[in-house]
Design a protein that fits this description.
By secondary structure, the protein is α/β, with parallel strands linked by helices. Strand 10 and strand 11 form a beta hairpin. It is rod-shaped, with a radius of gyration of 68 Å.
Length: 883
Amino acid sequence: MPEPLDLLIVEDNPDDARLMLLHLTEEGYAPRWKRVETKEAYLDALRDPPDLILANYALPGFSGPDALRLLKSAGLDIPFILVSGSIGEEAAIEMMRLGASDYILKDRMERLGVSVRRALAEKMLRFEKGIAEDTLRRKRSLFRKILDDFPYGIYIVNRHQEIEYANSKFAADFGDWASCKCHEFLHGRADPCPWCENAEVFAGSTIERLWHSDKTAKDYELASIPIKNTDGTISKLVVFHDVTARRRAEEEIRGQQNFLRTLIDCMPIPVFYKDREGRFLGFNKAYEDFTDIPRSELIGKTVMEILPSDEAAYHHRIDLDLIRSGGKVSYESHYTNPGGKRRDIAISKAAFMDEKDVPEGIVAAFLDVTARKRAEEALRASEEQCRLLAETSRDIILVHDMEGRILFANKAGLDYAGLKKEEAIGRSILDFVPPEWQKALLERQESRSKGDLSPYLYEAEFLKGTGERVPVEVSSAPIVRGGAVSSILIVARNITERKQAQADAVLLQAQFAQAQKMEAVGRLAGGVAHDFNNMLTSILGFTEIAMAKLDRGSPIQEDLKEVRAAGKRSAEIVRQLLAFARRQPLSPRLLSINETIDGMLKMLRRLIGEDIELAWRPQVDLWRVMMDPSQIDQILANLCVNARDALPQGGKIAIETRNVPLDEEDCAGHEGLKKGNFVLLAVSDNGCGMDKETLAKIFEPFFTTKEAGRGTGLGLATVYGIVNQNDGLINVYSEPGVGTTFKIYLPMHPEESSREGMRPEEEIPKGRGETVLIAEDEETVLMVAKRVLEKLGYKTLAARRPNEAIAIAESHTGDIHLLLTDVVMPQMNGKELAQRLKVLFMSGYTADAIALHGIIEEGVEFIQKPLTSAELGKKIRKMMTEV
């Protein structure tokens, strides 16, 4: 099959061109050809390079040499055969020198096929050689690049100690090495190095060693390898690596390891480390001391071999879990040493990794927390005791932050506030402090925030959830955290009873002083009266004798009568003084006060006048008393005269008697009263009343508020003396513009207790949990009423002022079934307060006196002081059952 051939013919003779084609066809080619005659056409044809060029030597305007030069300048490797009719030898040689493949004379055209085949074969050889050379060149270049880019230094030394090759790393470290011997260049020696291993390497050994270069001051790791050259000789290939940093790192690591070993060994807490099977690799001295096991008996063993089985299995399982998964863990457990001593420990473990980030083992450290555990248990017990103390304490215990928000409240505090714990936490402390006390609290709180750490002790008031105010003694102390006051502890104690006791003590002291004063005055009055009575006896006696000696018509007779009348009046004053001093002669007998009063009502009405109404309200079956009837006369006469003088425009006087049984609670709010059965004699008026200053002096002898000549000042002193002489008690209730009530308690005679018809003691009806609001400005009366009602089964709310009672009534969430209120109180009377609730009035005045003065309407519920358990219980129960 013909061989295809792309052919370019440079010929101006077409016949010669056809002859060329004929010979090539005969040679077995199938030419695809193109003929050109000019330079331009030739260059254009080269753009699609042919397999072969046949060119005539001489053409008009163009020539074969020109075509060859253009081909070479184009850098194309195309066989170029010169075909010419005649060409000299020199011209032919020149053409061959220029790169022509061959030249053929036109008269020897039969050689063309052979010449073409040879030219094409040479081209193929050139092509293959070029590929081989290029491949070798690239491989050499790549190898050199690999060696130059190799991070290790490489150089080759021949048998003459000459450096034949070195890569760029070598040059970078040591500089220009050309034409140098290794011992001169690397070691600065004129002769080969005594330690040189060239002989061994040239003999076929590979040697590795460390080398420190003084030239570079670096450490290297060397590998000397024998290599065989193409001529059969042996050279030394040296590969070296700078290990200066590694050596320093290794030295640093060794130093760090030594440091860490020393540090761990010096640590006061036990530290140990294990391999991935849980075997001990090492530990510090603290661990060895803690375990009481020698090092030789621990290294290489697992915890399973040294601890009790249950304890060991627990620790070993944690170790293996850590080694499998990595990470760290902290937990608390215990350790039992070989001697059986058990201690609590807090341990932390962590897996340490190898270079592939795979767990290689664990390291652990632990603390002996036995003492801490015991301290914590003691602390928990102490905290529990403190909690129980706080919760069972009757004192209010609160903790609030520096903004006043409550952080803690004990049961007593919650009960006083009427809140649940979750409702109290976060509330402001000011919610439980009356407005007038809030400024002082805020000032103390501000002082705490500035670093005041001193304890405070002061009195204040606590505002209950019902609105009731409770007097408290407050102990306050700061709670310091982080060097600063973080919160404040408050302990508030209800001092209502103490306040009452203090008030009672003051009252008792005043009463004792008054009693001493009255006793002293009584002794003085008795002594004066005794001496004065002796003188009056002489005066009246000698006057009577003188009058008997004179004639009835004698003018001196009238003068003596005046002397006798003055003496009798003086004797009456002496009698009153003796009554005050309890020294007058008595004729006591068992009597009914009602009968005595009935017998003197006409006299009393004449005594007080027609413009004053006298009301008489005796109790049926009144108990009898042992006393002189004339003393009852004296008491009523003096009290009614005083009442009359308080009613210059007329009015009403009421006399009342009652049986009054008193127990200890009934007497609690009234000094001088003692447990027992008494007959009450009350005299009331709706006159002008008296202020407190006047009340304090009314029983003093010769004290009077009347103008001169209208009173001796002995009337009430006489009453006081008579009551005391009969072991009784007198109380006075009076308000300016309201009126006055005198209450006299005379002891029932003991024989009355066995008298036929004496009523048996009745059972006091009990409450059923109803709520009673008590409004009373007198602290002692308030406490008595509260105690009596709570004993009877009622719930109580206490208020000392009307506005406080109103606040309680408005804020109390439950029902208030009854208001027990004093009729007369500061700021607002009980009548105004009673418009809001069902009410039971109480007063030291009699009901008649109260109604008469218009303070309350007639028919309203009313109870007199002193309050007794029986009367109060019956009255309230009756009102509770009424619809």
